Amino acid sequence: MNPNEQEKNSEAGMLPHFECTKCGACCRDEHLLVTVTGNDIAKIAAVLGLGPDDMLKTLDFYIVTNGVSIPVGLERISSVATERGLAFMALKKMENGDCVFLKDNLCMIHPVRPLVCRSFPFVFNDSKGQRNWGLSAKKEICPGLGIGPQITEPEIEDLAETILPSIRFYKEFTEEWNEEQTSPTVLELITKILSDPRFYR
Length: 201
Description:
The protein has helices spanning 25-28, 38-48, 52-56, 115-119, 153-180, 186-195, and strands at residues 5-8, 17-18, 59-63, 80-82, 85-91, 102-103, 106-107, 122-127, 130-136, 145-150. The chain is an alpha+beta fold.
């Protein structure tokens, strides 16, 4: 999700109150990119029975332009080689800004929603062996932040353990893909992801 992340170490007394209200605000914000990993793509395709061509219709590719600063929040997101250059991969946005999988204000793929959806409004980073967490700079759109029970350290750790290994593996995959390709296409990329058994673990 282009989280515009603001990371910090979790310290005593800094854990916020949070309870998802299922409002759909993070699914409708036109400025939030729902970035996806290989695991996200493989799981969505498996549940919906989508092949590479149909899965590709649910994705957008945001090109990394030479000389243009990468948007805040995307600095640590892996970009992939495509026929148009390096790009960030995300779920498609409809003309009104809604996620392609939002229907009647509900997520049609909720059980296999992307990792950034599972973690919003929290963001995570693994730096020099230390896990850091923070809140998205877009946190103001989330009415669930500041209400409900206080998040606990074990809950933050569990969420980090869900998110970070998949991000690390996807980074390794994209580095391999980017180095190996001479004439990459997005269709070949999605085909490779869907045929890689490591993404179904």
